Amino acid sequence: MYQVPQITSSIYYVGVNDRMKERFENVWSIPSGVAYNAYLILDEQTTLIDTVDVCYSDVFFHKLDILLEGRPLDYLIINHMEPDHGGSIGLLRQRYPNMQIVGNKKTFEMLRGFHGITTGLHEVKSGDALRIGKHEFSFLMAPMVHWPEVMFTYEQTNRVLFSADAFGSFGALSGHILDSHLGDRQAYLEEMIRYYACVIGKYGPFVKKALVNMDKQGLDVDFVCPAHGVVWTKAGFAEARQLYDRLSSDEAEEGVVVLYGSMYGNTEQLADVIAQSLAASGVKSIVCHNVTKSDPSVILRDVFRYRGLIIGSPTYCGELFSPIENLMNLIRIRDVKARLYGAFASHTWAPAALKRLLPFADEMKWEAVGEGVEMKMADLPSILSAAWSLGTAMAERLKA
Ligand code: FEO
If you write DSSP's letter for every residue of 58-108 in order, what string do you get? Predict the structure, then answer.
């Protein structure tokens, strides 16, 4: 007989998998899909935490029907209003017209805007509590992680934190819901970093503040239930939390991303020499990304992960190669901090790219490392030594 997955004896996973969309937010690739997580708590009063993308509302409502067995839904707690979670709220209200909607002031502004709902609201602030029987919820505002209305909900009886997008990962759930049941938790941790880099990374200081507030509240958690991806048990959450602490503090691993564009393979040769120099100098983690081949979300993930970044571009139409310019803009708007930066370029008759690349260090308030390398007319032998020196300088600075 069909069983809805459970987190505890009374907390059910009622989220859905989306393996149909090519791209999350119509931007970021999701080769393994994505899960929109929602949770139902059965007690004297029934309570749902978040909904799902409206494309999956039928699947979602079917799960609620199975569990509620004709009971009404008493509360909907909204941790986050973005349509991948809030998309089904309007339809849910039609099915359960007496349902009270729990959120904060900003939630309700968005609820009115997205769904025209202005009644049956129960407004909460940080520290407020809501008892539904044996379960008691408390609320912790987490503004700008990564929208202004975001809040976390903590269930005190079972020590479960419902954390909105925080600690969420790309990747649909293949049967298992809890990280402790997975053969390989690492894949979700990698996808958590990619989700952070693409969706949340710009708001690192706010994430840090939310983590500090969690600590101040002394929240003891047995389960962390994010809005995407696996549910973390205590041990898994310790790892996820460590990663979040690092990412939100702009702490990076010792490693280098060599990011380059190449029209005919010549700038790529230069990238390879620099990577070999890094390797010869003892750098263990080196990732080379050809900007027109690597997925931008994977490049961003690695830029967030590693401390060194060396960018190379050919001159194109008297400017940077446009895919490199686009990627630099993705990094720029995420305000990635505290990187060590080097640059290299190639041209035939107009040496423009290096002039555009070098100021990126100052703009981002990063430390420039080594001398910029400029190759003319694919004359690699003449700049081999300069390229090698750039790799060596980066390696030495990384280790310093
Ligand atoms: Fe998963 Fe910010 O929505």
Answer: HHHHHHHHHHHTTPPP-EEE-S--SHHHHTTHHHHHHH-TT-EEEE-HHHH
